[in-house]
Amino acid sequence: MAAERHNEEETGRPAHEAELQLARDSELWRRFATDRDPAVREELVRRNLPFAKRLALRYRGASESFDDLVQVANLGLLGAIDRFHPDRGIPFTAFASPTILGELKPRR
Prior knowledge:
By secondary structure, the protein is an all-alpha fold. It has one domain (about 1-105): Four Helix Bundle (Hemerythrin (Met), subunit A), CATH 1.20.120.1810. Helix content is about 75%, strand content about 0%. The protein has helices at about 1-10, 15-35, 40-55, 65-85, 90-105. Helix 3 crosses helix 4 (about 65-85), helix 3 crosses helix 5 (about 90-105) and helix 4 crosses helix 5. The longest helix is centred in the N-terminal third of the chain and has 21 residues, at about 15-35. The chain is globular. The N and C termini lie far apart (about 40 Å).
């Protein structure tokens, strides 16, 4: 019950809706891994743009403008999406974080 309440507080939606979203994400990843469909890739990018932006926020105030940092984070996101293999059992965000941060660090 506490986990459901915590999930609802994080996402702003009931836990069962978050679980459905995760199921949809896993289906998208499976389809992209199988077909490399550009439309599926675009949807995966759209869903993960806020994640890349949050990582870019860590470097706000550096010598680069925030818009440039977001662009660099988005490029890292694209690379991570293209290299991710869902069958390895690692959550995408755990896989993508080092890739995106690796793109951002040289811009400190």
